[in-house]
Amino acid sequence: MSRVAPRRRVQRLTLGEAPVVRHDTLAGEEPLEIRVGGRSLAVTMRTPGADVDLAAGFLVSEGVVAAREDLVTVRYCAGEVDGVNTYNVLDVTLAPHVAAPGESAARAFFTTSSCGLCGKASIDAVRTRSRFDLTADPLRVDAALLAALPERLRDAQAVFAATGGLHAAALADATTGELWCVREDVGRHNAVDKVVGWALREGRLPLVGTVLLVSGRASFELVQKAAMAGVAMLCAVSAPSSLAVELAEETGMGLVGFLRPPSMVVYANPQRVTGTR
Q1: Which domains does the chain have, with CATH numbers?
Q2: N or C: which end of the chain has fewer CB within 10 A?
Q3: Global pTM value
Q4: 115 classed as catalytic
Q5: Average pLDDT of each block of 10 consecutive residues along the chain (277 residues)?
């Protein structure tokens, strides 16, 4: 049975009709513990798959790493039940030149699939300063190219097509619209971390000249994660929060919400969207 999309026996009820028993495909959700040098840093609920990318992206978001050379190894460990590894614990070894995260960075409690900031003491602690200056990226993106991205993302969401229950994030070339990486997860923040982690391990940070597209709303945490990866354009198919808009304006990031062809709403740094009348 797939851990990404397990199947379960269910009963479908329709008023006025007899119950129908069938098998349904669900979005997988399991805990992942991320350790650094053997010390637990965070536990998050995620959809299994691309776990190494998730751990790497999480460390980018936390300001621990910013380049491929900052990571030595990421491996599954411990977490064994009845002699079978659960593949729900990852241990990261940092390069000698990278400082290990301090106690204040550790998540003291469980992080749900809907919350990427749980465990933070205050908003000030969340405003991690990115190592990358977004204003140095001269990014300009044609509105027609942005309008074409949601359909491309939907076409690439294989697990969502089977379950209807996953968020997605995609990294696109801002000139051609080509999707470089697509990741799905029950947590929108996890999907973004998986994309950022892929980019880190490919040696692509900072993500100059790219667009980050998310299938849900644009929250503060997603703008923060995009900024930490050097992304100068974030697009969402739903609405942004007020704090997300404030942070996008502050960092120089273009922020587009309600990206539903043929229209969209530009909430921050509209000069980054071209081709409009």
Answers
A1: 30-126 (3.10.20.10), 134-274 (3.40.140.10)
A2: C
A3: 0.89
A4: yes
A5: 82 92 88 93 93 97 95 84 78 96 59 52 57 95 97 85 80 97 94 98 97 94 95 97 93 96 96 89
